[in-house]
Design brief:
Elements (H helix, E strand, L loop, with lengths): L1 E7 L18 H15 L4 E4 L1 H6 L1 H10 L1 E4 L12 H19 L5 E2 L9 H9 L4 E2 L20 E4 L5 E4 L4 E4 L2 E4 L3 H6 L2 H10 L3 E5 L16 H8 L2 H14 L5 H7 L7 E2 L2
Parallel strand pairs: 1-2, 1-10, 2-3, 4-5, 5-7, 6-11
Antiparallel strand pairs: 6-7, 8-9
Helix pairs in contact: 4-5
The structure holds zinc ion (ZN).
Length: 273
């Protein structure tokens, strides 16, 4: 099973989420390119949408929601680790209301910005606010998030009041003694396609995550960022469209909603964070 997800945002570096100028690159052009590729190839995908972005691009998000599965990517794209529990809940509720108002659908899926969701208290907040499926936890350390899971396969998260959240994490591979990602963001942009294909073929379950900026060859040079952060957000963008085309040629993809229906959840582990 291969699951395709898009984090729909106009931010090109999670460090800049507070300061980045809205629509600082031609995000709608990049999104329309993606939608054309998906439509042409009959691809299902889930879009995790930033609430503030949706408010600025209501028509685009409504059009996407008519054909694709929608989840929340927070309202402000602030990192969970930088918010108090109360701030996190307010941000989540604002995103759910905004997305629900625009799409006329209940929003029951969530992915945290930068895989920054690591605390049980925050997972309880997701369950309390109606989130049924999460794609935020990881079995490796990210720039803004800790290793939370022991393995990168679907599992069930134990929440307060006997609630359960279904978790679909991104995949990892062991490389040079470390766990690294290979099918999302900067990893997907920079690793050779042959390596990505081999790793995906070795797994029964893969979750791919992409962003509009992964395809943006004209990312703004402004912003108070280190040289390393600039390289991280720009590396591999020129070859990303070709890589996506190869992925679509070589693998079948589905969205989170379909994956949730197909997984036998009784056979997955129950995890308590
Ligand atoms: Zn994001």
């Amino acid at each position: 099973m291969n699951v395709l997800t898009v984090d729909l945002e106009d931010i090109y570096d999670s460090l800049l989420s507070k300061n980045v100028a809205p629509n600082s690159y031609n995000v709608s052009k990049r999104v329309k390119q993606l939608l054309d590729v998906f439509a042409h190839n009959g691809i299902k995908a889930t879009f995790f949408v930033v609430g503030a972005f949706a408010l600025r691009n209501e028509e685009l998000v409504y059009e996407i929601s008519k054909h694709y599965d929608i989840g929340s990517h927070g309202y402000s794209h602030d990192l969970a680790g930088k918010m108090t529990a109360a701030e996190f809940e307010k941000d989540l509720q604002q995103s759910l209301k905004t997305l629900s108002d625009i799409t006329k659908k209940d929003i029951v899926k969530y992915r945290s910005p930068g895989f920054s969701l690591c605390k049980r208290e925050y997972i309880d907040i997701l369950a309390k606010n109606g989130i049924e499926t999460d794609c935020s936890l990881s079995a490796m350390k990210h720039s803004f998030g800790q290793k939370v899971l022991s393995s990168a396969v679907p599992c069930r998260l134990e929440c307060e009041n006997n609630k359960i959240i279904k978790e679909l994490p991104p995949c990892i591979v062991r490389f040079a003694g470390m766990n690294i990602g290979f099918n999302g963001g900067g990893y997907l942009r920079t690793l050779p396609y042959g390596l990505i294909k081999r790793n995906m073929n070795a797994n029964d379950y893969n979750l791919v995550y992409i962003h509009p900026y992964d395809f943006e060859t004209n990312q703004p040079k402004t912003g108070n960022r280190t040289f390393v952060r600039r390289i991280k957000s720009r590396a591999g963008v020129k070859t990303m469209q070709t890589k996506l085309n190869k992925l679509i040629r070589d693998f079948e993809f589905t969205d989170v909603a379909t994956a949730v229906e197909q997984i036998d959840w009784q056979k997955t582990k129950i995890i308590s964070i």
